[in-house]
User: Fold this.
Amino acid sequence: MADTKSTFIVRTGEVALKGMNKPYFEKKLLTRIRTALKQYDGIEAYRSEGLIFVKAPEQYPVREVEQEILRVFGVASVSHAVEVSSELEEIGRAAAEYMKKLIPERRIRTFKVEAKRADKTFPLQSPQIAREIGAYVLRANDGLRVNVHDPDCVLFVNVRREHSYVFADKVKGFGGLPLGTNGKGLILLSGGIDSPVAAWMMAKRGMMIEAVHFHSYPYTSERAREKVYELTGILAGYCGRIRVHSINLLEIQQAIGEHCPEEQMTILSRRFMMMLAERVARSHDCDMLITGESIGQVASQTVHGLVATDNAVQMPVMLPLIAMDKVDIMDLAQKIGTYEKSIEPYEDCCTVFLPKHPATRPVLARILESEALLDKEQLIASALETLETVGIDPDKN
Ligand code: ATP
Ligand code: MG
Assistant:
């Protein structure tokens, strides 16, 4: 009766709302799901009548496979289901058995059946199916009662042409769009809490990610850079292998320190980071820059600070966290698994040269005057010579 494989129903959320392009997005999503599950032999993933189905050999733990599917962007929810042929008796028996297992696990006393008939040629309509299946379940499970208003458990029955499905859970995924459907962005990745979350949010909208990190070696340690690679490994768990470019900013920071007013240090460094990132982005086919800035969070992220930073480049800059509160960013960092790594205490290049009184209302004209005191092109060229690139694979822990 029940399949020897575990069956998962995958719902696609926003992808399902696409019009003409829907097949394109579905195909991409399917490819992403297959890639996410490639460590399991014998897994099948296919589309059928508007849903995606995944079948895994029974030896693989259901929750583990489910977790892998849930990490894929574009997945709205997943249900682990029992698959049976589309005959009322078969469905009824499967539903009764399914509940029998669930009752002690979840201490269920009341339930209701919610039926959906995708196959309109099926002889019964949805409310009738629900009633009939409910009767099967009741007959097989003494003491269980129906409660349509506030049941302990909702048993879903999905009747389709080929097969029907019985399940009790719809576990929510992240939603979003499949990776690779929306260009490529270059994240300015520090070792902090915000930038990994910013990268993740753009990836969730289908954007491929590449990263650039600035260090001030030997003022910042090799371990600080390792930490950034480790953070990238966590992100790669969602995006696949990520290329990280690292650039030494020290010479630029020293030049700013020598020639420009101290309170402008942070803004001027940030402008150089943006200019360098733009060069890297152009030579690696990235369409946009991404930063983890959030309005008002620190001195350099006041509106005036952001205006002065953004003005340094031509390329569009995405700031996905711009209107988020720090606590909400921290919550998201916890949820995606970067938080614990981000709070490990390692020095950042910005903190090495932190001014005592950073400018919170920088006037762009003054900033540009200071910048003009520096040999910008030479500094940029020299910094780019320090560029090192590594590819970081998903961290599987
Ligand atoms: P984060 O938690 O991402 O470090 P933050 O709150 O510490 O952010 P800032 O240090 O002002 O903020 O940096 C703002 C943004 O600039 C970061 O989110 C990141 O995108 C970029 N950035 C800062 N420092 C670096 C760095 N060393 N390398 C690459 N990008 C950086
Ligand atoms: Mg930082």
In short: Residues 88-159 form a domain with the THUMP fold fold (CATH 3.30.2300.10).
